[in-house]
Specification:
The structure is a homodimer.
Chain A (H helix, E strand, L loop, with lengths): L2 H10 L13 H6 L10 H5 L12 E2 L6 E2 L33 E6 L5 E4 H6 L3 E8 L16 H5 L2 E10 H8 L7 E6 L6 E5 H4 L4 E6 L2 E2 L9 E3 L12 E7 L6 H6 L2 E2 L5 E2 L8 E6 L10 E10 L5 E7 L7 E2 L12 E9 L4 E9 L8 H8 L22 E3 L5 E3 L5
Parallel strand pairs in A: 3-12
Antiparallel strand pairs in A: 1-2, 3-4, 5-6, 6-9, 7-8, 7-12, 9-10, 9-11, 13-14, 15-16, 16-19, 17-18, 17-20, 20-21, 21-22
Amino acid sequence: MNKKEKTRRRFLQYGAGLAGLAVGGIGTARGQTAESEAAQPKNLRSYGERSRFEKTARTFGDGSPNTFTPLQDLDGIITPSSLHYVFTRGITPMDIDPQQHRLLIHGMVERPLIFTMAELKRFPAVSRIHFIECVANTAPTRGRAEEERVQERFGKSSCSEWTGVLLSTVLKECGLQKGASWLLAESADRVTHSMSITMEKALDDAMLAYGQNGEAVRPDQGYPLRLLVPGWEGVRNVKWLKRIQVGDKPFMTHIEIGTNASLRKDGKARWFNIEMGPKSVITRPSGGQQLSGPGFHEITGLAWSGGGTIKRVEVTTDGGRTWKDANLPGPILPKAHTRFRFPWNWNGEEAVLQSRCTDERGAVQPSLLELAKIWGVEPSYFRKTENSVIHFNPIQPWKVNRDGSVKNAIWEV
Amino acid sequence: MNKKEKTRRRFLQYGAGLAGLAVGGIGTARGQTAESEAAQPKNLRSYGERSRFEKTARTFGDGSPNTFTPLQDLDGIITPSSLHYVFTRGITPMDIDPQQHRLLIHGMVERPLIFTMAELKRFPAVSRIHFIECVANTAPTRGRAEEERVQERFGKSSCSEWTGVLLSTVLKECGLQKGASWLLAESADRVTHSMSITMEKALDDAMLAYGQNGEAVRPDQGYPLRLLVPGWEGVRNVKWLKRIQVGDKPFMTHIEIGTNASLRKDGKARWFNIEMGPKSVITRPSGGQQLSGPGFHEITGLAWSGGGTIKRVEVTTDGGRTWKDANLPGPILPKAHTRFRFPWNWNGEEAVLQSRCTDERGAVQPSLLELAKIWGVEPSYFRKTENSVIHFNPIQPWKVNRDGSVKNAIWEV
């Protein structure tokens, strides 16, 4: 094989039609923006915006203010703040004045205290990259499963660099009374959302967060202050945080013992199942996408676990017969979205793509069948909308058809 | 000392007046948003915005389209894309259609090729967190030095999570001819900015970047495609990249041998001084800020080096007599902004705060006097505006006056 053939072969690794024409087309490249260049308006110079050609957006839940992150369009591990998912029972308060906002800490403390935002910012701060995931993420929906995209199925998980003061630092200022073992966190929006947090978590890595991806927390993420309980159900990361009450038992709010309790087959509910399990998903190719044709396609996706750092992601392209390790190019951070990449040459035949992850504790993302076994139910149980299915983290299969279309195949395997 | 006194003392660690009143004020916290809550408009649900109370913004250079990042307001290591500094010789083209944009690679290659954006995105991708810093960052300005803020002095450095294809991957597709050792990168904006890059860098970590902080590269950062040469002068990270020409010697563009060459005392210029040296700066407290009074103030700032990973940041609060290690809470990544934090109790007397960093190669950020020695000049040389001062990375002193005001003291030490 001569040199030309060798380099040609290297080119073909990535599939036919990847790169185009030879010289002669230079004019196209040179001329294209000569006429269309426009000056940047002054407001965009102060605070920039994306190109008007970029249309990726959050999508909406049925008749609710809730939105999903377009995971299929994202790169890296940081979710742009403008695209962070929103899940709330009320509406986002847009008018909280940080000068007026206060945090009250009271209950079983030596000194009940009220903090201004400026006072909270005087404490030593920390910045950490963490995901937040809604407990209902990936839950079976009423739509036709095969038409579902990764955005609507997995888009209630997002990842930011959060900055704030550790809750432990502030609780030390208040002084804890003997026996203090739980706290209640309460929001300042109209619905007064409140959730219980264990003191163990409060003194571990819980954070009073006022920064997100470098700037202030966004209104729909709790501006000016949210509670961050890394790795725990999103619903416990209380937004627009205004009050923390310290006590000696869980506060049994209506959400934690009602709406968000996992109701099981025997009619019993599992309460305080608060840590998010290991989960991964292939974001490209994924449901609703269309492959241009056989050849090279990089498979990429995200993995995360409330249990800590992702140690391994495996990918199968043959419906689960063989699994191979994906690349984890990093950063690989505890309780953070972790990017994986896997090279794949599609031969044009039907294929089922899946990923599964393992976290630092050795917890492995289960298959749908394994998850059903853990729950003690038939797999069909998860499909029935009258059953409350949360903390649902089975391996996600995407089926690639011969025409290049990609469909959700969760119920087919 | 009884328990109450103990916790009281812990409280006082952070200075008097940090946290406020005891119970009784609950009403303030509860009532504050009851009337002011407003629904979030639909466009903000698709793509969110910051609170209207947040005003931090890029500031402008004199009569130019260039802007500075408000480092004093940022947290963590990620610069929000809307606040990334901009330095350009032309104006930001706002109308480049990614469907029409092409990258031509030609010159000493086996196969000259033209790539569409879709083709570039078919290649295996990487995501990496890197700073970009303008070669003129921190250069002495014409303004009154003592009034300068960190934004205008250091705000031509920003840090993003970049995604793209390694240039080495794409060059392999084209096939390099024997002797190919340099390349020219050229922009698609009106001024046709072009710079030389060594083949060594091109085959190391240079990237064709189309993603920034999760979404598409912003227009003012080169949408839809920029060259990323991590750790090198910002000016070589060519934006709106349309053409790469491979050759066997540097292309000697007017910027690299004229404008951006370091002119020395003897009239000679230093060319191709392309890697950014180790630099750090305290962003809070910094020039133009006002301390509320004696007591606890956390010192925080950023350190970075084109030479790789930051290994150490030291802080002095007594004008350089004693230095102590700052905390590096991480993430600590190669060629990325690295956050440092340092606890400080201000006694109300005059103080000079400085930071200095050391990178993985052992390169230490020099003092102004040390830098003058390296250049073979008197320190006053750097103040003269007729001298071209770039790659200027001396230790930055901020002077805290008795009234709590903070001033730039670069020329005082």
